[in-house]
């Protein structure tokens, strides 16, 4: 039942992941937003995600995960209701900040609950969990583009209703504290932050999140500038990228029973370089869909598998370590959206120039994995020795 609740909660996070990219074409028309202003809205979301995740993991290590999950879902509903009524860029930014705060707590809680499974199953379980993140990412643009007329207000109301249903399930489901939950002294708390492995893995989550949210937030706008309709662009985001994430994590769940999480993450990060670059070439809608789908497949295992490695190396304070890694990940969103907006310039067609950042980020991730293999092996051995 706990895995079921975690899947529903991460589904909400997936809906939030694709929300901004889904509503930006409509908001750009109604509020006459420039590329830079879109970047600042993404920055507001990133500030909420990163700022709240600083304390979310440590709080749940001490007080339990149910309180965090419920609080995160409530904040999400509040942000969506505000977004549904937003009539200015300031209101939109505030709503996205609140949604960032809620989404941050939600994803830390869901990953921390699932990370309690045994070492051999952790990476597979986290990839299975994040299948529902991809499913949520698929639902928002698909429903908005095909059933809600791609209207931002209607999309926000739909999200609020779906989140309220998940909240009802979470409230009435017992979520026990971790069997390792206990008061942790300052020395133990400091130890995990002395590990270079934590910072390297957190750098991976930073760069990966910048890359993934670069696709979520900017792909529909980029596709519209190539001449596609708004509905077609949203369908490519949902049936292409989100489906790719979904398929990639299903495949990774099976592969990780037989292959090292490090090998899976490294291989996928290398493949990301080519697929993210391919997406930026002007092609027919069918070919664009195929390229976006492949990008989703190659990106899918990187984040949950990296989080699984963090959970494996830092067992005593898994929520704190995972929360820190996710905080760094959301910092990537804070960086990528404004940078892509700046690189895109004032010309709507300049979005492609900004999105060239994506293959650069993928290349950097692969370099980190290649250079940190021996260090991670030593950290794993040290972690086993302390149990």
The beta-strand count equals 0
Taking pLDDT < 50 over at least 5 consecutive residues as the criterion, the unreliable ranges are 180-188
Radius of gyration, in angstroms, nearest whole number? 19 Å
Separation, N- and C-terminal Cα atoms: 28 Å
CATH second-level architecture: Up-down Bundle
**C-alpha geometry:** globular
Integer average pLDDT: 84
Range of helix content: over 70%
Biggest sheet record: none
Specify the structural class: mainly alpha
Helix/strand order, N-terminal first: HHHHHHHHHHHHHHHH
CATH topology: Growth Hormone, Chain: A
The total count of helices amounts to: 16
Taken together, the total number of domains comes to 1
Strand content: under 5%
Determine and state the CATH class.
Answer: Mainly Alpha
State the CATH superfamily name: MFS general substrate transporter like domains
What are the key terms here?
387 residues, mainly alpha, Growth Hormone, Chain: A, globular
Overview of the molecule:
The structure is a single chain. This protein has helices spanning 2-31, 35-63, 65-84, 89-114, 119-146, 152-171, 186-192, 196-225, 230-255, 261-279, 285-299, 302-313, 318-344, 351-355, 357-371, 373-386. The chain has 387 residues and is mainly alpha-helical. The protein has a single domain (2-174, 185-386), classed as Up-down Bundle (Growth Hormone, Chain: A). It is globular. The two termini are 28 Å apart. The relative contact order is 0.17. The model is unreliable at 180-188 (pLDDT under 50).
């Amino acid at each position: 039942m706990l895995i079921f609740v975690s899947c529903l909660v991460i589904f909400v996070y997936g809906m939030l992941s694709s929300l901004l990219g889904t509503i930006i074409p409509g908001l750009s028309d109604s509020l006459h937003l420039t590329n830079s202003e879109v970047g600042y809205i993404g920055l507001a979301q990133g500030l909420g995600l990163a700022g709240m995740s600083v304390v979310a993991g440590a709080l749940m290590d001490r007080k339990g995960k149910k309180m965090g999950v419920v609080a995160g879902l409530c904040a999400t509903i509040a942000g969506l209701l505000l977004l549904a009524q937003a009539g200015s860029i300031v209101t939109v930014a505030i709503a996205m900040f609140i949604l960032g705060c809620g989404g941050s707590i939600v994803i830390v809680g869901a990953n921390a609950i699932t990370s309690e499974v045994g070492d051999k199953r952790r990476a597979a379980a986290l990839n299975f969990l994040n299948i529902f993140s991809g499913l949520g990412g698929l639902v928002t643009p698909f429903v908005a583009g095909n059933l809600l007329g791609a209207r931002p207000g209607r999309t926000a109301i739909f999200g609020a209703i779906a989140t309220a249903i998940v909240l009802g399930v979470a409230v009435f489901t017992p979520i026990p504290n971790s069997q390792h939950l206990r008061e942790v002294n300052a020395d133990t708390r400091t130890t995990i932050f002395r590990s270079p492995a934590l910072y390297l893995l957190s750098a991976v989550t930073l760069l990966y999140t910048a890359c993934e949210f670069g696709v979520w937030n900017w792909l529909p706008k980029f596709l519209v500038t190539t001449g596609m309709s708004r509905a077609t662009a949203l369908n490519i985001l949902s049936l292409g990228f989100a489906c790719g994430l979904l398929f990639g994590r299903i495949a990774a769940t099976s592969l990780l029973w037989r292959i090292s999480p490090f090998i899976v993450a490294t291989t996928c990060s290398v493949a990301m370089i080519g697929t993210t670059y391919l997406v930026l070439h002007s092609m027919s809608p069918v070919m664009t869909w195929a390229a976006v789908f492949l990008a989703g497949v190659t990106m899918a295992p990187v984040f949950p598998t990296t989080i699984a490695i963090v959970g494996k190396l830092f067992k005593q304070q898994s929520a704190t370590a995972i929360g820190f890694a996710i905080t760094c990940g959301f910092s990537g969103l804070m960086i990528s959206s404004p940078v892509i907006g700046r690189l895109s310039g004032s010309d709507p067609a300049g979005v492609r120039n900004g999105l060239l950042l994506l293959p650069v980020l993928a290349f950097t991730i692969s370099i980190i994995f290649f250079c940190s293999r021996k260090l991670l092996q030593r950290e794993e051995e040290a972690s086993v020795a302390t149990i």
